[in-house]
# Entry
Amino acid sequence: MAELATIARPYARAAFGHAAQSQAFAAWSSLLAAGAGVASDASAARLFGNPRVRQADVVALIVDVANNLGANLGEPGTNYLSVLAENGRLHALPEVAAQYEMLRADAENTLDAEVTVAMALTDAQRQQLASALGARFKRTVRLNEQVDATLLGGAIVRAGDVVIDGSLRGRLNLLAQQISQP
# Structure
């Protein structure tokens, strides 16, 4: 069987192409996120490919969830999900959503960065960090902040494939490694 990323790629590109054409990036993100959420739920995932359940009903379930989240794509979204259902690919929705978000970020020249800090950042610190990361990655950076009191101080930044560990714990671990090496 083909790898999930390989299966998802053409569906992500198709969704991205339609979103770009209709300037509906956010709505398609909501639809795919809702589909990924449904596909990730074990009880709902059992409906995929179940001969006792009409796939049109599964599609209607995903569309209802997406509409409740504010993604009202109407017929194009329903048709897209129907194609996934007909081809037995609804299980790939989490990977489709992830690949779509990467395509969207490239098109919008944005980067989502996860910042784990010991204490909540002030607005000035958040702006300064976003500016510094924007200059480094040459993209507009959206920060997702998480507070973890076990860090003691500093921050850990995860942006794409890059991890910047500026935490006190990370620095202490590095110092311990340097001391223990002859």
User: Anything to note?
Assistant: The radius of gyration is 21 Å. Residues 4-22 form the longest helix (19 residues). The longest strand covers residues 110-117.
